[in-house]
Amino acid sequence: MSTHDFTSRVHPLFDRLCADLLGQLAPGEELTINLNAEETLFVRFNGNRVRQNTDVQQLSLSLRLQSQGRTVEKSRTLSGNFETDQVAMTSLLARCRDEAAVLPIDPHQVPIQNHGSSSETFRGALLAPEQVVAAVVRPAQGCDLAGLYAGGTVIRGNQNSQGQSHWFATETFFLDYSLYNGPQAAKGNYAGTHWHDDEWTANLARTKTLLQLLSKPQQNVPPGAYRSYLAPGALSDLIGMMGWNALSAAAWKQGRSPFKKLAEKDLSLSPLLSVDENFGLGLTPRFNALGEVSATTLPLIQRGELANLLVSSRTAKEYSLQANGAADGEAPRALDVHPGTLAQSDILRELGTGLFLSNLHYLNWSDPVSARVTGMTRYACFWVEGGEIVGPIKDLRWDESLYSALGSKLMALTADAEIDPAVDTYYQRALGGSRTPGALIDGFTFTL
Amino acid sequence: MPSHTHPFEPALRHALLLAEWAGLRHSSETTTQRCVRNDRPEQNQSCLEQGVMCEVLVDGHFGYAATADLSLAGLQRAFDRAATTTRATTAHKVHGFTAAQRPQANGRYQSQRQTALDQTSLADMTDCLLAASRAMQGSDLLVNRSASAMLVQTDIEYLTSSGSHTRQHFDLVDLTLSATAAQGLESQTRTWSRTGQLGGEVFHRDTLVQQAHQVAQEALALLQADNCPSGRMDLILMPDQMMLQIHESIGHPLELDRILGDERNYAGWSFVKPQDFGTLQYGSELMNVSFDPTREHEFASYEFDDGGHRASKQLLIEHGVLQRGLGSLESQSRSGLPGVANFRSASWNRAPIDRMANVNLEPGSATLDELIAQVEHGVLMRSNRSWSIDDYRNKFQFGCELGQMIENGKLGKLVRNPNYRGVTVDFWNRLAGVGRDATLHGSPYCGKGEPSQVIRVGHASPPCLFRDVEVFGGQA
Prior knowledge:
The complex is a heterodimer of chains A (448) and B (476).
Chain A (H helix, E strand, L loop, with lengths): L2 H21 L5 E18 L2 E19 L2 E8 L4 H19 L16 E6 L9 H6 L6 E17 L4 E17 L2 E9 L4 H17 L10 E7 L1 H8 L9 H5 L6 H4 L11 E4 L18 E6 L2 E2 L6 H7 L14 E4 L9 H5 L2 E14 L4 E14 L2 E5 L4 E5 H7 L1 E12 L11 E14 L2
Parallel strand pairs in A: 4-6, 8-13, 12-18
Antiparallel strand pairs in A: 1-2, 1-5, 2-3, 5-6, 6-7, 8-18, 9-10, 9-12, 10-11, 13-14, 14-15, 14-16, 17-18
Helix pairs in contact in A: 1-2
Chain B lengths: L8 H8 L4 E17 L2 E19 L2 E7 L4 H16 L18 E5 L11 H14 L6 E19 L4 E19 L2 E11 L8 H20 L1 E2 L3 E7 L1 H13 L4 H4 L29 E3 L22 E5 L2 E2 L6 H7 L7 E2 L8 E2 L4 E3 L6 H6 L3 E13 L5 E13 L2 E7 L2 E5 H5 L2 E4 L4 E10 L4 E9 L2 E9 L4
Parallel strand pairs in B: 4-6, 8-18, 9-16
Antiparallel strand pairs in B: 1-2, 1-5, 2-3, 5-6, 6-7, 9-23, 10-11, 10-15, 11-12, 13-14, 16-17, 17-18, 17-19, 19-23, 20-23, 21-22
Helix pairs in contact in B: 1-2, 3-4
């Protein structure tokens, strides 16, 4: 089945199941229905050879029943056959009712409303499943390539008992990979909606060039504080920590936000830093699981000061705040860091002597109250002297507060920014991503 | 083929027209989340994931297709997709496999528990969680009090064209109590959890209330505590932190698929080299580590892995020397190294890869008091809160919720924000004492693989003493 066939089969199935379920509601019952579906070919590569190929077709429908002040959510996998799924979903709705009869009242329940309707379908031109392996490995002959190709259709749908209806379908692929020369590695990513052999070849050539730089003598850099340039991929990793409770209004109210001091104006970040939630990047649908539609752009940090936290309707109700379309977990879905003025050609000169970091790895809060983060350097990271790359470094552990790294120590942001599309594949292919420039940071702290 | 008639048999017969060997794994898993926060219902949610992974062996390469359409036509289509893609792949396969990597397996497995999860009433569960939440009341500084339970019931049935037929049923519980105390700009969180193959018996009201009260009191006490001091000192890790230490610095680096490079583009490679098996002094002589999927109630116990390999206990590290890797029959065939039965998938829609399952540190002989008595200046840490390690599994930094100073062999004051860092082999060679009393811990959220998978892992460990470790606290 082609990816177009998948969308044209799933859309009417979703509409029929929604009509059937919404038609079964009793007075006083309200229902929100969400669909997550995808048809994806995954191919895992090691040594430019195939380790595993997995073709997945999956559909999941979730129900949020609100009845007599109670809230129950249940979801299940769909078979794709209407008659089978109609019976299964009717049974699931019945079990929602059974539980609602037993549970206590949910005082933070958000009334179901009609937040409007939307329908977006983005067609792509993807490789046929049997073409993928040859297309990937042929230009990479002689390379030690490890990585994952994922391509196909991703669908999100939403309807509710107040007449709301949203549909989002997109045909995309990504090839998230790294090239190895012994223990040295360079990272690459080719993603889009239309596969082009020449684009893949050019992408690969850029990563090969980066890998060649790693053949210079390895530099032993002892722990200490160094001026460091975080390339867009590395800054994307660092900014991504803002999705771990930092920008969540609920986490702030519940004592779990590392940005509590920012929210309460005890500390600020650099005036060079402005961050938006920007759905204009086109990486993810604007509607959330309640069907609420976010503004196209929501400022989160403006010139180093907190502009908005992400506030879901449930949090808004509990703490008397204004909701702004955030999803239940209040994590950003499309972070966009405003670029600065540092030209690409001036990066090494401005860095002078220090570290050029292409990627970071395995970040975690090491002291949440002070927004301190630890992590590792990874992939193409170099020691630079006098504006010249000397050689690759052995991986270093770093430990630094965001209030410092993105505060007083932030020297400049580059004029160019790069999109980092989400390549997460836990449970299902993720949508979303971020856009970040590079960042020049003084005295970044390396500990091990 | 299975000797009795099974509804999936016709699909397997169809697959044999396309492949040298075929397998089919049907998985049905219901995950229920119950959460009470600040004495009010926060989450009542369940999710049924159900489908079939169809597997074919074509010209020495295993390929997969997943479908939730369980009709014969649906399964046949999935096998067709698997065969088509796999046939186009075999010229570029990483290794030539045979059906020997899918040994014949027949048998059943059932988690040990007293009360089946589906026999536990929602009203009783909710009542217990509400009682635990209320037991954390007592101060306006306790801004967040939650009691939550994740209940999982899983059925996996596996059939192959070579006659394997296994059925395994799992009852799994991850119960967590959490209290956050906040004052001004400072906040501290304490948690308690019980994680394992268990049943409804975990909803014991008095036990939960007692634990909840303790968690809340410790969060309040940490709010007033000093920061953990910085410097090199002795370190005692309690079992709920040893779990993380074992997981990150033993479990992952010993996975053979990492050593073979499969994971390089995601979680990373490993500092362990094939030639290290049988020679590397991974830790001190006190260090004995096992892979043990046979242990009752531990979170990742099972009878067969997802390739039909019967599971058994194996020593990975003996008296500190590395002996065996965490690798499936596929990884063993590729590497020539000894492994275990750990070819596991997270769900019906993911292919199996090498996963650690239960990895345990074998108990020693010392009581906790005897370990503490050996410390002149040090700190005891409980309950993981922060974890980070490099992609070769060398340089780690871990943080805990609670620290307690040890001076001259005696426990002293509480300290907050305790952290420590080190390098794996150096750290394990600092192991100077192993307690006798191991407890079971686990996590539902071990992430790995491309496409990615979260899977359950279990770790049993006693408290352990490490000498002269770099310790530090939070910012003042």
